[in-house]
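Sorry to interrupt, but I need a hand with the structure work. Go ahead and set the record down below:
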Amino acid sequence: MTWTAYGTSSTGYQQSVALGNMLKSKFNSQVNVKTGKNDIARMLPIKSRKADFCACGIALYFGQEGVYEFGAKSWGPQPIRMVFASIGGAGIGLAVAKDIGVTHYKDMKGKRVAWVRSAPALNQNATSALRFGGLTWDDVKKLEFGGFQASLDGIINGQVDAAASSSVSPHISRIEASPRGVAYLNMDHKDAEGWKRLQGAAPWMQRHMATQGPGFSRDNPWEGSGYFYPVLLTNDDYDSATVYSLVKAIDTSYDDFKTAAPGVDGWARDRQGFRWVIPWHDGAVNYWKEVGVWTADMEAHQAQAVKRQKTLTDAWKAYSAKPVADFDTGWLQARAAALTAAGMDVVFD
């Protein structure tokens, strides 16, 4: 099998290699992990059927939705399916400088928040954190940065007060050691309205008790947000028998690889997102049904997730047949109209 993944220094790559080593030693199955520098490079081999699986990040949702770079003429909404996923001890949200004395996201009003150019995942994650506190970008001072590291350096250098990041980024450790310090603000999991606002901007975000990050531990977790990374995905028409066998191999061999790489413990059965933002592959569903995990509620959620993908792909086909001069704007309008007519959230307005 050929898998695509983030760069060699990423946890996604390291986890992919750990799984590949397990599959080779136990099942004599060769996994070739190819790295991609960006979301397009990682997902294009899946689209073109030159790779079997992608150990992807949240760009998979943008691919499903046909937004940002996936709204270009050469792409459009992708009928992808979830095979397995990992969610470890890391959290994801806004890293906030301690010295501004803020303890709740609603108190971020008027503070300086980083916006990273050409980084939709980071910016949507920041948007969702602000929404949790009932704020928008109009309520804060938005400072643009050219890259992820630059945005976090901006906290150390006093240019900005908060930036989106995973809690285990090495840059977070640098901020923690700086005079400003760093904090992740509590996101009360019982705050239903706050979470409704948050997930309206980032449906992929989940309630998560993070145990890895600045001051986090199993005894003192961060009550915050997170999502799956990496997510092993493939096309909807990929061979079901192969997916079934792969899911079975990962699930039944968990004890053989759970300590083989940072974050790889997140591949446990009880950490899987059976009601997440993209549908599961039929081969995976067959396995989960066989072991008694799949429920009627999960089946109903799966049907809605598949319906959303079909609504998007049908809208793309209809729009592509008669696009307007401003292709990108026209597609977003056609997309919004189709989702609204189907009674589904537009998300990317």
Notes: The chain has a mean pLDDT of 96. Residues 56 and 107 are 34 Å apart (CA to CA).
